[in-house]
Specification:
This protein is mainly α and 96 residues long. It contains five helices and two strands; from the N terminus they run H-H-H-H-E-E-H. Helix 2 packs across helix 3 and helix 3 crosses helix 4.
Length: 96
């Protein structure tokens, strides 16, 4: 008999490892009205730049964040409603 293991859903995989810390770092940065770039997120989540970048890509694939272009050549992560629901909701000044 062959047993095939089903992969975990994409949101579970995105939130495993440094993904949860990176999602929280994006939420804190955005709530503080800052730009959640890769370097800002890695400093706040205390991870390496590679781990932060891979976690951000996984969170983007899970539709918890969206990348948009900033004022320069950097990419900025923005939380989606699904991402805010995981971290506890939007701050009051962003709820409108």
């Amino acid at each position: 008999m062959i047993v095939i293991e089903q992969p975990a859903p994409i949101r579970e995989r995105a939130l495993s490892g440094p993904g949860a810390a990176v999602l929280k770092a994006v939420a804190e940065t955005q709530a503080g009205l800052g730009a959640a770039t890769i370097s800002a997120v890695k400093r706040r989540a205390k991870t390496s730049e590679h781990e932060a970048h891979m976690a951000l890509l996984a969170l983007d694939a899970a539709r918890l964040i969206v990348f948009d272009s900033g004022f320069g050549n950097y990419m900025r992560a923005t939380m989606t409603d699904a991402g805010w629901a995981i971290v506890g909701g939007k701050p009051l000044w962003m709820a409108a």
